[in-house]
Every structure is written in C-alpha cells, then in structure tokens.
C-alpha cells in the first residue's frame, strides 16, 4: 500500500545481488535502485531487470553514502542479521528523517526445527547463532537478535511496524536446497567451535529421504509516520 498507488514509485534495494527482490515483488510501476558491493552481481541484475532498474556499486559500511534521495521505500532481503546495532540505528535515522518506508525480508530469528530430531541439534544451533553474531563486514552482527532490534528501533522512531514469519521450510522436495543449507550451518557451527558439527552434518544428509526442517525468519514492514 505504500507504493502501489504511486505512478512512479522509487525503491532502493540494499544488498541486492542479482535483483531477487525486484522479481519477487514484481511492482510494474516501480523504478529500482539496486545497491551492492559486487559489480558482477549487479551486471546480472541489470540483465534480468531491464530498464526498470539502475545499479549502484557501493560498500554498505557507510550508511551515509546509501543513495536515498527521492526514494519512497527501502528494501533488503537476508541482510539485517548481518549488520550491527549501530548500522541499523544509522539507517533508521536516515529513513525517519526522509519519511521513507522499509521492507526487510527474511531476517534470521535464531530458531531451527528438525524432524527427525538429532542429539546435536541444540549444540549446532547455538554455535551457528554465535557465528551469526561475528563481524560480517558491517560491524558486530546482531544475528538472531536483529529482527527484534530492527522492529524496536523503527517503532521508537515513530514507524508503523508490522512483522510476520517467513520461515524457510524444507521437505523431500527441496533436497538440493536442504543439503546446501545444512552444509552452510555445519560449516559456520564448526568455525564457532562446535565439535559435533561434522558428525551432525553427516547424519542430517543421511536423513534426506525423510527430512522436514524449518529455519525461522521474519519479515518486517515499516511505514513512516503520516
């Protein structure tokens, strides 16, 4: 409702990669500015998005450099659990001053559910969550605390904030994605000191025919004060 009635909605997508948010939202009246540090990904984003998107190669560490002039909405997918509290505060301050809305999709919330369960699930999750709170280049990351912190910061700045679960859910139809995900979790958990990570990964990959897994994420929509 923030951009649907605007004849020329201007949206800035942070950490855009190849432009998946453009394709997911598919807003015909919107012009996108896609911001990422990787020019190779931005080139692919331009190819896929066509004239409705322009790109900016930028290191997101400097929030003050993010191009927000004329924007109605900022979007980001799977970004905010990688940034620090200071980074969030700086962005919210800019959004508030300019009256710009925010849609933050798939922010990891620290929860994992597995069926069948494994004796090392809790240890792996705990180690993975610790790893998520290391510096990913944008300050000490909030990791699983990011969604709550972001929503609270936005509300304190007067935004109308809505949240909804957007968990990743896997079953036997998603074998390749599941395998990629559990390998990533095990690698991060091992780097955070979990001695059970490799054995856990072997058992999890062995359970592919009967897998059912849920990794918790949250979507946040924040509308600026009227």
Explain the overall architecture.
With 226 residues, this protein is an alpha/beta fold. The protein has seven helices and eight strands; from the N terminus they run βαβαββαβααββααβ. The protein has helices spanning 20-25, 39-49, 85-98, 121-132, 146-156, 175-191, 197-206; strands at residues 9-14, 30-36, 53-57, 73-77, 101-115, 160-165, 168-170, 212-223. Strands 1, 2, 3, 4, 5, 6, 7 and 8 form an eight-stranded mixed β-sheet that branches. β4 (73-77), α3 and β5 (101-115) form a beta-alpha-beta unit. It is globular and about 50 Å long. 37% of the residues are buried. The mean pLDDT is 94.
How would you concisely characterize the structure shown here?
By secondary structure, this protein is α/β, with parallel strands linked by helices. The protein has helices spanning 20-25, 39-49, 85-98, 121-132, 146-156, 175-191, 197-206, and strands at residues 9-14, 30-36, 53-57, 73-77, 101-115, 160-165, 168-170, 212-223. Strands 1, 2, 3, 4, 5, 6, 7 and 8 form an eight-stranded mixed beta sheet that branches.
């Amino acid at each position: 409702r923030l951009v649907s009635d605007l004849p020329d909605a201007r949206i800035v997508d942070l950490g855009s990669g190849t432009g998946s948010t453009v394709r997911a939202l598919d807003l015909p009246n919107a012009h996108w500015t896609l911001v990422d540090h990787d020019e190779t990904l931005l080139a692919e984003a331009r190819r896929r998005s066509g004239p409705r998107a322009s790109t900016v190669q930028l290191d997101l560490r400097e929030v003050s450099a993010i191009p927000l002039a004329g924007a109605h909405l900022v979007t980001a997918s799977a970004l905010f659990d990688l940034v620090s509290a200071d980074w969030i505060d700086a962005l919210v301050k800019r959004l508030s001053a300019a009256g710009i809305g925010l849609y933050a999709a798939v922010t990891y919330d620290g929860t994992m559910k597995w069926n069948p369960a494994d004796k090392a699930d809790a240890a792996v999750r705990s180690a993975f969550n610790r790893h998520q709170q290391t510096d990913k280049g944008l300050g000490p990351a909030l990791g699983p605390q990011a969604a709550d912190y972001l929503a609270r910061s936005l509300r304190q700045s007067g935004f109308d904030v809505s949240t909804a679960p957007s968990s990743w859910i896997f079953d036997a139809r998603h074998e390749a994605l599941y395998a990629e995900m559990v390998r990533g979790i095990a690698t991060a958990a091992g780097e955070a000191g979990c001695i059970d990570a490799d054995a856990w990964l072997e058992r999890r990959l062995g359970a592919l025919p009967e897998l059912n897994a849920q990794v918790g994420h949250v979507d946040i929509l924040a509308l600026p004060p009227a």
